[in-house]
Each structure stands twice: as C-alpha cells, then as structure tokens.
C-alpha cells in the first residue's frame, strides 16, 4: 500500500507541474512564481557549474527564467519541462562562455592517445597514477586545479562534462539537452576526461597520460 501511496503522490506532482506550465502559458503570473521557486535552485546550481562566478551565474538564471516567461507558449511537451529548462540554461551559459576571451588556448590533442598507421600507439601509456590522483582530489588545492582545468575546456565539451559529472544526467538526456547524438556525447565526454587527466598530471608534476615511445 505504501508503494501505491508513493505512486499516487508522484502522479499528483507530475500533474501539478503540467498544470503550472499550462497556467503559465495562459498568462498566470502566480504559476510562474511557483515554477520559479521550485526550479531556481537547480538552474542556479547548474549555472554556477557552467560559468563559475556567482554574479554571472545569477545573471544566467535570470536570463533563463525571463526566457521561460516569454517563451512558455513555445513549450509543446515533446520533452519534460525539466529537460527544456536544462536546455535554456545551457544555451544561456554557452552564449556567455563563448563571449569570454579565452586567457589561454590549450591544444586538447596533446592529451589524447595518438596512433601510427598500423594501429599501434604513437606514444606509449605511462604508469597509471589514478590512485594517487584520487587521494589528492580530496585536497582543496586539487579541487582548485580541477576547476581551472575544466575552465580550459571548449564550452560545449564543458557543458557535456558538467551535465554528466555534476548534474548526473544520462548520455541520452544530455543529447536531448544539447541537440547532439548519444555517440557524440560519449566522444566529447571521453575526450574531456582525458584532457582533464593530462592537465592534472602536469599540475602534479607528472608527465601527461602518454609519453613518447622509445
């Protein structure tokens, strides 16, 4: 019976959100205020992960909810309201990130595996120091290094990483939010993690993930 109660409660929550969206589309300001209270913390948290500075994150969140109010009539329910909200947030954050002047361009290819024409590694893997990295990740300094490395990612790669590692979205959900194929999401996520691994290795005084073969 408890399971039935929880199921009914979930259905009521779904209907409530759907009803709020429909009321907003009809111009109900109170419905907008309710949706704002329910979803602002999530939108703001995601904006912080994407753009960093609190002031900019607040501006992104404001842009998102202004878009929600002005574009509510365009929401057709093909995806969930939360997915639509994620899409608005990512678009607003990406626009801001792309307007920034990059302080340092880093070639991501320098941190990716390279292969010869016969399929063998052009460079050979070095000793796996991932356990050492995991120990350091608990330290405040390492957290700062990680944030700095994430800032070097291209905006779209950063968005994929944030949605997966900070927002716990599945690859399929990320593909819906960003308009990418699931395969493209997987490729960008893998590439970004290799890049971060290489950046952190250098910061810790190690060689990058790969070194020149002998």
Q: State the total count of DSSP E strands.
A: 2
Beta content comes to: under 5%
Strand order of the largest sheet: 1-2
Structural class: mainly alpha
In total, the number of domains comes to 2
Q: Kindly report the average pLDDT value.
A: 78
Runs in which pLDDT lies below 50 for 5 or more consecutive residues are 8-13, 119-131, 209-214
List the topology elements.
Layout: H1 2-25, H2 29-51, H3 54-71, H4 81-99, E1 123-125, H5 130-136, H6 140-151, H7 155-165, H8 171-178, H9 182-203, E2 210-212
Helix pairs in contact: 1-2, 2-3, 2-4, 3-4, 4-8, 6-9, 7-9, 8-9
Q: What would you note in describing this structure?
A:
- The chain has 214 residues and is mainly α.
- It has two domains: 2-99, RNA polymerase sigma factor, region 2, helix turn helix motif (Rna Polymerase Sigma Factor, Chain: A), CATH 1.10.1740.10; 108-212, Winged helix-like DNA-binding domain superfamily/Winged helix DNA-binding domain (Arc Repressor Mutant, subunit A, Orthogonal Bundle), CATH 1.10.10.10.
- It contains nine helices and two strands.
- The protein has a two-stranded antiparallel sheet.
- Helix 8 (171-178) crosses helix 9.
- The longest helix has 24 residues, at 2-25.
- It starts with a helix and ends with a strand.
- Residues 8-13, 119-131 and 209-214 have low confidence and may be disordered.
């Amino acid at each position: 019976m408890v399971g039935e109660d929880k199921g009914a409660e979930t259905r009521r929550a779904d209907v409530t959100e759907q009803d709020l969206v429909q009321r907003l589309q009809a111009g109900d300001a109170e419905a907008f205020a309710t949706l704002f209270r329910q979803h602002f913390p999530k939108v703001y948290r995601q904006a912080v992960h994407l753009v960093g500075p609190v002031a900019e994150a607040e501006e992104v969140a404001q842009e998102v909810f202004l878009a929600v109010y002005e574009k509510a009539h365009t929401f057709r329910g093909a995806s969930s309201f939360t997915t639509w909200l994620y899409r608005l947030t990512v678009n607003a954050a990406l626009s801001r990130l792309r307007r920034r002047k990059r302080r340092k361009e880093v070639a991501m290819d320098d941190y990716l595996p390279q292969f010869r024409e016969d399929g063998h590694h052009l460079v050979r893997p070095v000793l796996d120091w991932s356990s050492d990295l995991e120990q350091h990740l608990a330290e405040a300094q390492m957290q700062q290094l990680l944030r700095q490395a994430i800032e070097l990612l291209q905006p779209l790669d950063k968005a994929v990483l944030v949605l997966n590692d900070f927002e716990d979205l599945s690859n399929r959900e990320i593909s819906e939010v960003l308009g990418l194929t699931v395969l493209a999401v997987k490729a960008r996520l893998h590439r970004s993690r290799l890049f971060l691994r290489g950046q952190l290795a250098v910061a810790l005084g190690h060689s990058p993930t790969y070194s020149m073969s002998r």
